[in-house]
From TrEMBL:
Keywords for this protein: Membrane, Oxidoreductase, Transmembrane, Transmembrane helix
Family statement drawn from the similarity comment of this UniProt entry: Belongs to the short-chain dehydrogenases/reductases (SDR) family.
Domain Ketoreductase per the UniProt entry, residue ranges: 57-241
Name of the molecule in the record: Ketoreductase domain-containing protein
Biological role: Putative oxidoreductase.
Annotated TM spans: 20-39
Source organism per UniProt: Ceutorhynchus assimilis (cabbage seed weevil)
Lineage start: Eukaryota, Metazoa, Ecdysozoa, Arthropoda, Hexapoda
GO molecular function annotations of the record: oxidoreductase activity
GO BP terms, alphabetized: lipid metabolic process
A Pfam cross-reference name: adh_short
Length: 337
């Protein structure tokens, strides 16, 4: 009997403690939860409003003939934006334009505009911008997406290849941005987006020219962001990891030839559609930076910043493995019948 009474008393004591804790924790939890819920609700309304405000915006996209640029064109266009498709290949731009019209013909009122341009001819950028302004009257968002990649050792890469990649990835984007900027400054509004790369934050072996061009673009974007903030102009730098596009296929080798191979990492990357949705969301919420990747590249960024010695070891081993793989690939078959 004594043991039963003791057990009951213990249970009652536990219940009293539980309710006592609830009386303390409950109000505290509510005090934290209610502002958080209100913040999330406000954020959802604000984001939806910003998405709706894309309707009618003039969005210029370079590299719009395929891959991520094409996916971005679809994402902006279905939200009602007036997209200006820019790339070298007019035929592919026509294909993208036709696809947009057929897919979203009932939902939009602005037919896509085609502007064939070559980013390596950066002295022509002002003429292209003048043409766009003569058609649309303004440019609200510039997406610097066009670019080319590189596969090759530093010792095997000619200076012409370095220059070519820098011309397209850096100087082309800079020239186009400088041509667009006066109109944005005049109307005190605008958004400039740089599609950089994880390799603009951490350099990889066998990608020296590409990594250098993206590092330069990152720095330019950071400087520009500070300079135009007081003019109500936003600057977003997007650093994607691997995206399932033709980037590696179209990359330049050290001699300037087309690489022509799909990297396994690229083949297993994010789809362009997924990446485009995330990038448009970053534009909508005016994010200054977005690292769009899986965990591994983010770990590399962390190591480079906080444990550089470890990062250097990892990259050296990666370079050695790549060198051995290339040697094995080029070694003639010694087997005999």
């Amino acid at each position: 009997m004594f043991m039963l009474e003791l057990a009951v008393n213990n249970k009652m004591s536990d219940l009293k403690t539980l309710f006592s804790n609830f009386n303390i924790v409950g109000p505290i939890s509510l005090a934290v939860a209610i502002p958080w819920i209100m913040f999330k609700m406000f954020s959802a309304v604000w984001i939806k409003k910003n998405y709706n405000e894309l309707a009618g915006k003039v969005v210029v996209i370079t590299g719009a003939s395929s891959g991520l640029g094409e996916a971005l064109a679809h994402e902006f266009y279905k939200l009602g934006a007036q997209v200006v498709l820019c790339a070298r290949r007019r035929q592919e731009l026509e294909r993208v334009r036709t696809d947009l019209l057929h897919t979203y013909c009932k939902d939009t009122t602005h037919p896509p505009i085609i502007i064939p341009l070559d980013l390596s001819k950066y002295n022509d950028m002002q003429n292209h911008v003048d043409k766009i302004l003569s058609i649309t009257g303004r440019i609200d968002i510039l997406v610097n997406n066009g670019g080319i990649s590189h596969r090759g050792r530093v010792k095997d890469t000619t200076i012409d290849v370095d220059k070519n990649i820098m011309d397209v990835n850096y100087f082309g984007a800079v020239a186009l941005t400088k041509a667009v900027l006066p109109d944005m400054l005049k109307k005190k509004s605008g958004h400039i987006v740089f599609i950089s790369s994880i390799q603009g934050l951490v350099a990889l072996p066998d990608r020296s020219a590409y990594s250098a061009s993206k590092h330069a673009l990152q720095a330019f974007g950071d400087s520009l962001r500070a300079e135009v903030a007081s003019d109500n102009i936003s600057v977003s730098t997007i650093s994607p990891g691997y995206i399932k596009t033709q980037l590696s296929m179209n990359a330049l080798t050290g001699s300037g030839q087309t690489y022509g191979e799909m990297d396994a990492t690229t083949a297993s990357g994010f789809t362009p559609d997924y990446a485009a949705k995330e990038i448009v969301r970053a534009v909508v919420v005016k994010r200054k930076e977005l690292v769009l990747s899986t965990l591994l590249p983010k770990i590399a960024i962390f190591l480079r910043k906080y444990f550089p010695f470890l990062y250097f070891v990892v990259m050296e081993r990666r370079a050695k493995r790549a060198s051995l793989a290339e040697l094995a690939k080029s070694k003639p078959d010694e087997k005999t019948n």
